[in-house]
Amino acid sequence: GSNVLRMSSGIQIKTKSAAQKSKTCSPESQPKPSAKLNPKTIDPFRAYSQPPSAFAAAYARGGIPCRLVHGSVKHKLQWECPPETVPFDPLLLTLAEGLRETKHPYTFVSKEGFKELLLVEGAAEKAIPLLPRLVPVLKAALAHADDEVFGRGLDALVQLSAVVGPSLNDHLKLLLTNLLKRLMDKKYREEVTVALQKLEHCGGKVS
């Protein structure tokens, strides 16, 4: 039955991405005069830096249904609609992409959003079909040079493992090289060891 699932989710993806295309193809509708005056736009190093990520672009056009609320003690996320009503495809993938962000508020929104989305009822059924697309995105976070990005990727992986259990096992070998590489680094040894123990606990024995 997995083929049928794949086909139907393929159809959903097509219609979604078509809808997203029509949204993203009209930047003219929102002219930003300040961009012209912004010295950053004339930054000579800009050519070498990456264009805004998918996550930053989605956040800017309201494609991420949660926002950061500044608290005096602790920041929290506010969802525009209950997270259990939000489709995991594409939001869980977009939030996972956002784990590679290094700027505030994206860092907080992606990390917290990913965590809260996985806490909704029925998260496992919604997340499991996305694993083939989700794991490479988490791998990119785990392979990232930035320590904080790696940390967020590791946390997200452990959270995902707790939700989907053994379903993640087939995909773990994709990630193990990144984890073992950091395991060699004194700075991460403890963190990665704990994460591997949790992955093993949730998924059964990881060979």
Automatic annotation (TrEMBL):
Membrane-spanning residues: none
SUPFAM superfamilies, per database record: ARM repeat
InterPro entries: ARM-like (IPR011989), ARM-type_fold (IPR016024), Parkin_co-regulated_protein (IPR019399)
Pfam family, one: ParcG
Bias type Polar residues, positions: 1-32
Gene3D superfamilies: Leucine-rich Repeat Variant
Region (Disordered): 1-38
Superkingdom: Eukaryota
Designated name of the protein: PACRL protein
